[in-house]
Amino acid sequence: MKTKEMVFAALFAAFIGVLGMIPPITLGFIPVPITAQTLGVMLAGSFLGKKTGALSLILFIVLVALGLPLLSGGRGGLSVFVGPSVGYILSWPVAAFCIGYMTEKVWSSLRTWKVIVINLVFGVVLISLIGAPVMAIITHTSVWAGLVGATAFLPGDCLKAIIVAIIALQLKAVSPIEEKVNNT
User: Fold this and answer.
1) C-alpha of 126 from chain center
2) How many Å apart are CA 69 and CA 73, to the nearest integer?
3) What residues form DSSP beta bridges with 71?
4) At what angle do helices 154-170 and 112-119 cross, to 10 degrees?
5) Residue whose C-alpha is closest to residue 84's, from 28, 12, 132
6) Of 24, 49, 62, 177, which has the highest C-beta tally within 10 A?
């Protein structure tokens, strides 16, 4: 791994931590808050690509596990990994990898709508399909109830997917993916 990739991974881990400073929106019917951090997950995959994007989220999770209060609401430490948000948090590196993988595949013909679709499938649906069942198991509710409750995230997550697509296209020329494509 190049130094530049490690720096990008660290910067995105920090950026996602900064997004955690935006106060969460708590809902009374689901124990997982709405946060801005999934925007960072989608952007990591769309801008950094599969390997560096996933690495940035792994680094972020390690920092949270070490006790840094980087999650929305100032949460951090090992206790987070036994709470209802754990499925969502652990899905982030997987989502960033999948988003990055698909973005790299269509890089030469990248369009805003393609990035939106990629982020909707892997940044919204995949995260919910992993996070909601784990939340349901931890809260002793049915998986179906968890999935239905997770629909509360859809409007905001769809908006985040659109914002990420616009940002990713604007930054395409300086993306590490661009450098990777041009060197092959």
Assistant:
1) 10
2) 8
3) 75
4) 140
5) 132
6) 49
> What are 75's strand-pairing partners?
71
Q: Which residues touch 130 (CB under 8 Å, ≥6 apart)?
A: 87, 88, 90, 91, 94
Distance CA 31, CA 111 (A): 36
| Range 77-83 contact pairs with CB under 8 angstroms and sequence separation of 24 or more | 82/138, 83/31, 83/138
What does the pLDDT profile of the chain (184 residues) look like in tens digits?
A: 789 999 999 999 999 999 999 999 998 889 999 999 999 999 999 999 999 999 999 999 999 999 999 999 999 999 999 999 999 999 999 999 999 999 999 999 999 999 999 999 999 999 999 999 999 999 999 999 999 999 999 999 999 999 999 999 999 999 999 887 777 6
